[in-house]
Amino acid sequence: MDYLVNINWNKITPCLVLLVLEIVLEFSDCATPAEVNKHLELGRDFLARGQLSDALTHYHAAVEGDPHNYLTYFKRGTVYYALGKAKFALQDFTKVLELKADFTSARLQRANVYLKLAQYREAKEDYLQVSQEDPYNEEAVAQYHKIDEYIDDLRLAEAYFRGADHRAAAELASRLLEVSPWAAHVRQLRAEAYIALNDLFSAVSDIRSVNRLQQDSTDGYYRLATLLYQLGHVSDALKEIRECLKLDPEHKKCFPFYKKVKKVDKLLLECEELSEARDFTGCLASANKVLKVEDEVTLVVFEARKWLCSCSVKEEVYSEAVAACGSALQLQRDARILCDRGDALLGLDMFDDAIQSFKEALELEEGLQRAKDGLSRAQKMQKQSEQRDYYKILGVKRTASKQEIIKAYRKAAQKWHPDNFQGDEKKLAEKKFIDIAAAKEVLTDPEKRAQFDAGSDPLDPESQRGGQGPFHNPFHHFQHGSPFQFKFHFN
Question: What's the predicted TM-score (pTM) here?
Answer without folding.
Answer: 0.63
